[in-house]
Amino acid sequence: MVEKIKKKIKKLELLSPAGDFECLNSAIESGADAIYFGLQDFNMRGRAKNFKISDLEKIKKICDKKGIKKYLTLNTLIYDNELEGIEKLIKKVCGYVDAVICSDISIMLLCKKYKIPFFVSTQVSVSNVESAKFFKKLGCSRIVLARELSLNQIKKISKVVDIEIFIHGAMCVSESGRCFTSQFLFNESANRGKCIQPCRRKYNVFDDKGNSLKVDNNFIFSAKDLCTLPFFEKIKSSGAVSFKIEGRNKDPVYVSTVTRVYKEALDDKLSEERIKELIEELSYVYNKGFSSGFYKGYPTRDDFSKIENSSATEKKLFLGKIEHYYDKLGVGLLKLNTGSLKIGDFVYIIGKTTSVKRLKIESMEIENKSVNEVKKGMSVGIKLPNVRVRKNDSVYKIVKKKG
């Protein structure tokens, strides 16, 4: 009875991706309760920047200072010749992470050996109560459920063990990610973190006699992104304790935007009007259109993307870097390496410590004289009210993408 009461009052966790330090700090500043990250080996985002072993102490220091949980992904398949190496890695991460997210039982056993909590990855495709009981008995602290489950199925399994579910981001056409297409076509295994995403390409379809078939969408394998914001109140009452944002390959602007939006949704019950406003903000950053995945039923043809690249309504153009920040004046000196900037433009300022700042340019000066526009090669002081930036922070102009 006491255990049930504890589970009911357990704080819901917003879990954000961190592919590098800029993303890590952006996630924390935007309201994440926990971050998940990979090292250079043994994780499902092998093509992301990822971190080095030597970064673990800095990651721990940043997160512990803010009370942020940190989870390491070691969720690829492991071969016999790698067992010694993975054990050495597990020993090295002891004391630096709060849990390891893994799919291979060899890693689960090593986590038990070295007393590191472990979460069962979505790669394992846990889809029922009995499987959940098995992994709980094995010693897992949490299960990231298969992505093919409905909210009702999730609620049932959540009574057995702590559950983590995805709430936003890219979806593999194989959903839980155990796809062999990249391995079969290009000898680059998705299950080893090396997927080159052949599902995102356009295909011609032929019948067994070689006749070309007309289809209304040649991106026949390209799933839209998951977006649960329109029904997030149902997500919060699903029984899951952790809500995960996909995106370790994404940039700091994506991490910052999506984390901030879902933090607001987690903390408050949003009006229909506010949901519409926030969905528009989500559309600013990388996406392939939005879908409810399997949460509200089986996906239909409308849940497949019809474009090759992103549907984002905004893009960022690199301008240059901050050369100096005058703290007392609240002014940053920007050297434009390319492009132009004028009063009224919106910019992102991005840095490892600064994270992501979005602001409107309202005042610019050159040698104490106000200017309305600057171009490539010029240095300009820009007023930064309530924003602290740092030398070498990158500055990008935000422009609307043409429909």
Structural description of this entry:
With 403 residues, the chain is α/β, with parallel strands linked by helices. It has two domains: 2-178 and 221-303, TIM Barrel (Alpha-Beta Barrel); 314-400, Elongation Factor Tu (Ef-tu), domain 3 (Beta Barrel), CATH 2.40.30. The protein has eleven helices and 22 strands. The strands form four sheets. The chain has an eight-stranded parallel β-barrel with strand order 1-2-3-4-5-6-7-11, surrounded by five helices. An eight-stranded antiparallel beta sheet has the order 17-16-22-13-14-21-18-19. A two-stranded antiparallel sheet has the order 8-9. Helix 2 runs parallel beside helix 10, helix 4 packs across helix 5 and helix 10 runs antiparallel to helix 11 (272-284).
Largest sheet: 8 strands, parallel, barrel
Compute the average pLDDT: 90
Count of separate DSSP helical elements: 11
Rg, please? 23 Å
Distance between the termini: 56 Å
Could you list some keywords that capture this structure?
403 residues, alpha/beta, TIM Barrel, Elongation Factor Tu (Ef-tu), domain 3, eight-stranded parallel beta barrel, eight-stranded antiparallel beta sheet, 11 helices, 22 strands, globular
Chart the SSEs and their pairings.
Blueprint: H1 2-9, E1 13-17, H2 21-29, E2 34-38, H3 56-66, E3 69-74, H4 83-93, E4 99-102, H5 105-113, E5 118-120, H6 129-138, E6 142-144, H7 151-157, E7 163-169, H8 181-186, E8 205-206, E9 212-213, E10 225-227, H9 232-236, E11 242-245, H10 252-267, H11 272-284, E12 290-291, E13 314-326, E14 331-336, E15 340-342, E16 346-351, E17 355-360, E18 364-366, E19 369-370, E20 373-375, E21 379-383, E22 394-400
Parallel strand pairs: 1-2, 1-11, 2-3, 3-4, 4-5, 5-6, 6-7, 7-11, 10-12
Antiparallel strand pairs: 7-10, 8-9, 13-14, 13-22, 14-21, 15-20, 16-17, 16-22, 18-19, 18-21
